[in-house]
Amino acid sequence: MNKYRTHNCSELRKKNSSQDIILSGWINKKRDHGNLLFIDLRDNYGITQCIIDKSNSSFKELEKIQLESVIKINGKVVERSEETINLELQTGEVEVNIDSFEVLGTCKELPMPVFTDQEYAEEIRLKYRFLDLRRKKIHDNIILRSKVISFIRNEMFQLGFLEFQTPILTSSSPEGARDFLVPSRLNPGKFYALPQAPQQFKQLIMVSGFDKYFQIAPCFRDEDARADRSPGEFYQLDLEMSFVEQEDIFEVVEKLIVNVFKKFSLKKLMHAKFPKISYEESMLKYGSDKPDLRNPLLISDLTNIFSREDVTFEIFKKLVKSGSKVRCIVTKNTKDKPRSFFDNIDKWAKDQGASGLAYFTIEKDKQISAKGPVGKFFSSAALEEIMKITGANDGDSVFLACGKINEVEKITSQARDKIANDLDLIDKNIFAFCWIVDYPMFEKDEITNKIKFSHNPFSMPQGNIKDINFDEPLNIKAYQYDIVCNGIELSSGAIRNHIPELMYKLFSIAGYEKTQVDEKFSGMINALSYGAPPHGGIAPGIDRIVMLLANEKNIREVTMFPMNQNAQDLMMNAPSNVNEEQLKELGLAIKIKK
Question: Sign of the CA dihedral 260, 261, 264, 268?
Answer without folding.
Answer: negative
